[in-house]
Amino acid sequence: MVKIIDGGVNTAKGYTCASCRAGIKASSEKEDMALIVSEVPATVAGTFTRNLVKAAPVRWDMDIVYRVKEARAVIVNTGIANAVTGAPGLESCRKTAEKVSSLTGIPVEQVFTASTGVIGPQLPMDKILDGAEQLSKRLSDSREAAHAAAIAIMTTDTKPKEIAVEFTLGGKVCRMGAMCKGSGMIHPNMGTMLGFIMTDAAVEYELMLKTLREVVEDTFNMVSVDGDTSTNDTVLLMANGLAGNAPVNGKGEDLAEFKLALRTVAEYLATHIAADGEGASRLFTAHVKGAPDRETARILAKSVITSNLTKAAIFGRDANWGRIFCAMGYSGADFDPEKTDIYIESPAGKIKLVENGLATDFSEEEALEILTPDSITAICDLKSGEAEAVAWGCDLTYDYVTINADYRS
Questions:
Q1: What is the pLDDT of residue 25?
Q2: CA distance readout (Å), 38 to 28, 132, 153, 198, 308
Q3: What is the pTM of this model?
Q4: What is the pLDDT of residues 9-24, one digit of tens each?
Q5: Within 13 Å of residue 314, how many CA atoms lie on the same side as its CB?
Q6: b/e map of 239-263 (b: 16 or more CB within 10 Å)?
Q7: 184 within 8 A of 393, measured Cβ to Cβ
Q8: How far is the C-alpha of 372 from the C-alpha of 225, rounded, in Å?
């Protein structure tokens, strides 16, 4: 049984974290760097942007995940993405890892780096290295340190995103703590999204990598805010084994429990990214069911939540079901419009807008009431099978344009 508990990225046994203000972005007074450390080497897994333009820290971290296969630290900066920075950008990753290594004794090749912010500029290494020194002196396993770290990695986010869960593997109590950031440049295949998940469970490398990919596909990769896929998106999972369980190897019930814990964490973070999309006022969920296969359901659900016209209708509280139907029609998925039902649902109720491809005689007043809360779901029933999928997005507001018009200033 997986239980959500109060905690953050340092909740699992053997992890500490810290945050500081290095002053990377002169116009901001907030803390802008964070460090997470495991007291022992941890098995690692990761998923990364599919954008052909990969930021330097993405390339650095991919080498650790696929070649080194274990790590002990993650250092994160905001303000500058260290993307499209060429060889100097990769050298900045190395210098940052070397600084952490010199301060903590952790091998350079076991230090992940992560960056988020403006694309193009080189990192101000004097500030980054000074920040690393500050961080090394502040490492803590306290709840306050975890919360501060979750705030420090934010850019245009309005809320920190963190969660912790407890579960049992082989009779041993295990914990998993996580934090992420993401608000804009978010699209399926992840977005400007950095996610860090730390567990004290023991899991075999290949199995952990496979499990993370499967979970990300159904959670982070089902989120879209604005249709832009970032250069920096990264999810890192570290498992240091200090809970003392026999390593999960795919046999028995432990894999299902571990996957459920990871799914619980990832889905929580994914939905909170969608709800905190830049300028968003409502979480917008698309639930496609009755599909002939999972892939059809996934394609349709993502098409609905990425439609700008549909997102604008959600913002305007307009029950414009034609926009939902249109997004389904151009998705590329094969379905029968004449068998399809469409509903909208929220804490205020549920109403059917379309039955067998035709508009129902629904009440516009009732629909307006249902579209008023801050969480809205479009349910699309294809009535052609048992498969289903869920995607998460947000409405499209005036504030989205304002935020992105002056992002660099």
A1: 82
A2: 30, 16, 19, 9, 42
A3: 0.86
A4: 999 999 999 999 999 9
A5: 31
A6: bbbbbebebbeeeeebbebbbebbb
A7: no
A8: 20
Distance CA 379, CA 268 (A): 20
**Alpha-carbon torsion 47, 19, 14, 264, what sign?**
negative
Which of 181, 177, 218 lies closest to 6 in space, CA to CA?
A: 177
Alpha helices in 71-224 (DSSP H): 86-104, 125-138, 143-152, 205-218
In 260-301, beta strands by DSSP E: 283-291
Query: What span, in angstroms and rounded, lies between the C-alpha atoms of 83 and 122?
Result: 8
For the chain, which ranges sit under pLDDT 70?
183-192, 225-230, 277-280, 397-409
As a whole number of angstroms, the distance between CA 324 and CA 304 comes to 6
Handedness of CA 278, 279, 281, 287 (dihedral sign): negative
User: What is the C-alpha to C-alpha distance for residues 300 and 26, in angstroms, rounded to an integer?
Assistant: 43
Closest to 136 (Cα-Cα) out of 180, 106, 163: 106
Q: Which of 113, 155, 192, 234 is the catalytic position?
A: 192
DSSP-derived 3-state class of residue 115: strand
Tell me 245's DSSP state. P
Residue 192 annotated as catalytic: yes
